[in-house]
Fold these 4 entries.
Entry 1:
Amino acid sequence: MTSLASLRPRLPSPLQEIEDDRFTRYGVGLVLKRDDLIHPELIGNKWRKLAPNLTAAAGRTVVTFGGAYSNHLRATAAAGRLLGLRTVGVVRGQELAGRPLNASLARCAADGMRLHFIDRSTYRRKTEPKTLAAVVRAAGAEDAYVVPEGGSNALAVRGCLALGEELRDHADVVGLACGTGGTLAGLAAGLGPDRRALGVPVLKGGFLDGDIRALQQQAFGGSRGSWSLDERFHFGGYARTTPELDAFAADFESRHGLPVERLYVAKLLYGLVVLAQEGHFTPGTTVAAVITGRP
């Protein structure tokens, strides 16, 4: 197995100051934490969450989970190719097995990931020990190292501590788009006193609060850091967007020359603009937006 260090991640990731009148008119500073520049293929929080898990895998096959458009599956497949690891992706939706692969899953397959499709009912129960064992057995990977959906487990949460530590001297509030909550759980723990993390969930459902608390319990034995969630900016749910969000993202790209990923990053930036307008940030506050991906 090729070592992770040989992939030469760019850590700490760069900070980029942004002049944007939608913040400066309220006395608020905006900086971008460019985690999208950590590695060209293991982008953003994917590196931070996957690296400790790949180390723990110690050369074994890695089995993980995701939907048909999962960024996590793509990152895991790329890591397998780069490091010489076998990977298996358990994909939600048995009905997809007989169809042509979409671009996301085709990229996973091209990177050497073996895809195993399961029905949605079984997928919902995948964290139950008996169901997980049956799925892994059916995928022919009994001896594999299992990484959960989104890569979020105790190792991943501890891997994201460094994100908070890198930002604690540069921002008062750190905004992050959230899928499974693992990055926010680690970020908040690493920020230190008098700093807080603000999560913008990209899925509907209101379940993340409990998930983040559980992840911090697993990683640290209890709650760590100051964090909150604003559930208003999911734009219909995961993998959903709207003309309004697309227009906002295109405008941000035009203003700042930064390609804006729509499913996570655009929702975060939109939410931060609204919060600034609502007076959520006191004058003199510096807000950091974590850029976790590219289009």
Entry 2:
Amino acid sequence: MKQLIEKILPTDNRKRKWTAIGLTVIVSGLLTLWGIYEIGQYGIALFILTPLFIGAGSTILYGRKKGITKRQAWQIGLLTLTIFTAGLLVFAIEGIICIAMAAPIALLLTWIGSLIGHAIINKTPHNASTTLLLLVGIIPTMAFIEKNNEPALTSVVTSIEINAPPQTVWKNVIEFPQLDKPTEFIFKTGIAYPIDAKIEGTSVGAVRHCNFTTGSFVEPITVWNEPRLLKFDVVEQPAPMKELSFWNIDAPHLHDYFVSKQGQFKLTALPNGKTLLEGTTWYYHNIKPAFYWQLWSNYIIHKIHNRVLTHIKTNAEHAEKKKYRFNTKIKSSFSY
């Protein structure tokens, strides 16, 4: 292994740098393609171990038998990561939005990887080849381990206070007309957002269709407690986003990697005549590390909830005002 590396790596610094970068990008790319398309995993192997390898691998290859500073290690690691992500875009493996979401953790771990590579080169250079083999081998091993892990169900709850009684709010919960176009930046990037909702039937067994920009959520009603609680399962769902890219990307993570399982609307009558409306979504995703990707998922779901709840609030309060004006007009007519 040591002899092979020495034969491949040029002695000229410039050529050595680009050879180290090229080898690291090729190995990282092949492991990424294998992990995504063969094993079907978007997890720790991809989002933690691969950037660590990008930082450490490029640093070790460049600095082997010549030394490297921390600044050089970070620079070569960052350049390698940039070329790697550019390859994901050019070869239509990922889109701009997913790469942007992964960027914070990828940058941090590439930097950590470069520090690891720097420490190995400057403190235990005889372990350089072993470290490279270990990093390359642990990526697919972790992908296989992750494949059998069951994802945990997560809930997101968003609430809003509406100046209308529960019965009026209920009518706007079970279905609602088309929403205005969103002003939030997140929905202008390709993230799917709700358009309207229709329902077929009443009571348990009715089927609600919540229509998004990428398709429809099909939601059979499991609890119909008018006007207090509407609960439903999700049996079909569209892609969570349309990737921004130079090409038409249909990445595997757009299908069955973010899964909405259940939802509900809970209406609570308040003493002041208003209604507290709570929207809840239960979901899981097969993307890890969960703590990181849940930050994005929860943020996006809250934005979707807010869009729907605000629309329901506007419609319910408008209906209540019309009802008040109508009743006032009738009373005025009788007074004559």
Entry 3:
Amino acid sequence: MSAGGGKKAILAALSANAGIAAAKFVGAAITGSASMLAEAVHSVADTSNQGLLLLGQRRAEQEADQLHPFGYGRNRYFYSFVVALVIFALGSLYAIWEGIHKIQHPEELSNPIVAIVILGLAILLEGYSFTTAMRESAPLKGNASWWRFIRNSRNPELPVVLLEDSGALIGLVIAFAAIGLTMITGDPVWDGVGTLAIGILLGVIAVILIIEMQSLLIGEGATPEEDRKIRTALVDGRRIDRVIHLRTQYLGPDEMLVAAKAAIVPGLEIAEIAAAIDEAEARIRAEVPAARVIYIEPDLYRTQPARESAVGETNHKPQS
């Protein structure tokens, strides 16, 4: 997935969240609703997060240099990890603190109908952002479930936007219900309960993102499907007989490092071996376009050392 597709979803989320944040702050000032204020802070955090994701994409475009010979692609993972921390610190912890405070010291709402109108508008805008993210993610998701896509995608921005937007929609429904219950029952404690629920929701989303982005930041290998394609493309059955071992790692969402030791048929000349390796690289890139950096070591097949067996044949993300 190129940065362009993710960028469209990020820009849609950025524009929606900026407008929503302004509207929510106005609503919170008019009504005094804690859940509305928590949602406003949530939208500010989301807007800041979209800016961080765009910054990560810009930094990732830097050319490789002597200090970073494999480039700066992992900037996208780093800034997505920062986004997860922002959601947790600025969104979740604040909402939980505000919710507990409002439960202990409930305050009457003024003009709650204003909050209802603003929340309804926010749901429409967040729905637009969410559907944009889903549409941009669909080609990558394929037939997998959305949860599996979030768990296994090497593109960090789209899972972040999907989880942010889904969390925002659920949070808006919670805030809507909290203010509605406050209006029906006349008990403002429901506003604090809704705020606390929003904080817990944001905390769960933040923890999921922190786990996923930390794994990407450390370095994940090819997916099982990509691993299979690379192994199949590497062997031609004439000069390259089999794969002795294979290691892969994503240097960024669109760039994979492939390192393999391949068994060469005995008796080939050096020129034939070089041609076989060049052709194998071309086949791999045709099957897995992300495999841009490829190192193939020719060797005669031997029984794998115990160390190789212990490490395992593949280096990919566990499936959920």
Entry 4:
Amino acid sequence: MTSTEIRRSTGRRLQSAQWRALRDDHRGRVDDLIGPYLRARKNGAKHPVIDFLFTYYSSRPAHVTRWHPGFGVLLEEADDYLVLRGYQRLDDTVTVDPGFLRSRAGAVGATAALLRATASRPARLGCFGLHEWAMVYRTTEKRHDAPLRLGRAGTDAVVEEMPLRCTHFDAFRFFTPKARPRNEAELTRDRQIRDEQPGCLHTTMDLYRACFTLAPLIDSDLTLACFGSALRARELDMRASPYDLTALGYDPVPVETAAGRAQYVREQSTIAEDGSVLRAALSQRLSDLLALSNRL
């Protein structure tokens, strides 16, 4: 793809002052969202809620803090970006390398297919976040350094009294051996594209992973929006878990009660609606990228 074709595909050229202002605004929004957490993390502090978005996804803070313009945007006086993966010089500007898009076309297509399949299904809101309970069922081990609100016997009783309806393989694979047969379906990686549904908190969280693993093709505005949604989903995920996180300022959602389940569904619905909007936006980005990659 020539420089002329790239310009025609986007029409965006940002002067140094323009893109630096966007970059600084992005950094400010990240700081508002997780600044205290990032500073504590640098000093070695652990956080059982937010750490998940970095440790489980093998993400780094730079995946959130670093600003990317997205594919096709031309940056003036941006040589600092040339040391980053996926960028190239184009005439007197710096932009994401079309060759990088070509090399990632398979991943773009696979992600787009999963997002389309997920969006095609109605949201299921009856799981009540019991996956975290299933991960400690009938075991002496815990995944987090926090006490169990109901103790071990009480936690096991909740799993035995309520149906497990997990649809997300990456949660299901951490169920204890005794919990797995209790799920309504045996989930596998191969059938993930058939099982994913938009009501699942983890499916919404995965939108962040989709963005940062395709960086710098995806603009940071969308990546940060997906990260913020993932953070809200993760907070509900852990508030509804068997762990007592009140010392960290998280009020529990007691899904072992009817009132707690109703609260969970209300909050889950809001997150699912937000996730659906972001999923549609990301799907459109990926469709545009695939159309461009077919021209390379």
